[in-house]
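thread: overnight batch results

M.L. [08:02]
morning all. the overnight job finished for the chain we discussed friday. pasting input first so we're all looking at the same thing
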Amino acid sequence: MMQCPNCGFKQEDTEICQACGLVFAKHARRQELLQKTGPATPQPAKSGKGKTVLLLALTLVVGLTAGKMFWAKTPETPPGSEQGVAVAQESPLPALEPTSPPPMAEVAVDIFVPPVEKAADIPVTTSIAQVRDATVYVKTPWGTGSGFLVDELGHIVTNRHVVEFDREQLNNLRAQISNLENALKVEKKTLSRLESERKDATNPGVRQQYTQVIKNRKTEYEKYRVLYEKMEEQRRNIAYYTPISDIRIVLANGTEYGITDIEMSDNYDLALLTLQGKAATSTRPIQPNFSHLNQGETVYTVGSPFGLQQTVTSGIISSYRNYRNGVVIQTDAPINPGNSGGPLIDKKGQVLGVNTMIIQDTEGIGFAIAIQHVWDEFSSKIAQ
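M.L. [08:03]
and the structure it wrote out:
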């Protein structure tokens, strides 16, 4: 058992005091030096934060937030000051760092807003505009994606991964929630201990220091408690997710509908949704193009990258690749989160493929599942 020569705290660790942050070896060398040279002239304590001791790290990866939890200790007590006064100067929880794009209302950039508020208000004068109006915004409890109408019966093609949550990701989310819950329990005990130490402190200055530290830590604790509740709510929504009741489809004119049926492909990352009611009958569906365009020909993507609905981008056909059971079209047209399930189209507005994936940490390398595979899987349902 080691007793700190600075604050008197007892612990098994023989390197650093867990109460005041004193480095025992450094302190011993200093005492030896003082015995040889005599006492040094006391220096005023520097303002700002002291040395930190990392006691607990928690990394959150869900799309939600990420951060580390740590305690920051004060520097060694300067000569002449009251011993035993060493409490954390910082909250153990840092500011939250978003890992997913914030809502548009929170984006800190200047955005030009045209006179019309919806893409559907723009006159349909081109084939690209017709495709834009047939492209939909798909909302689920865990995120969003795109899709497009393929017939007048309200059938919508999208990616399977847009409407089916990965169970492995759900298990990871559960583990992150458990880690955060345990960390909050530890911090709650720490706050209780600090409250007790403040009550026992006889020096008014020390009590004031405790009061400020406790206030800061409670503020950060509350931030992470709210985060925990949000993650728990998301977990419940995903755990009890049913496509028929939880998937929402937003058309280009802003109207929102549910679905009445869903069919998943076992061979490709594809799904076919049936829009509720007669909502799609006034929108012209996208026609397929089963032919192969030449490399270098211009193509366009339509979708909702990062929630920006009815966004059109352009690029070229880079190549055709064999992938798993079929063919994918490689393109340098930008494909971002939220584009999944949207159409890759030619200059005539005919769909060549379904945007599905990119190679991580690269630019200009995206892939779309050839439209032929959509008809291979769902031709019995799609109106010809």
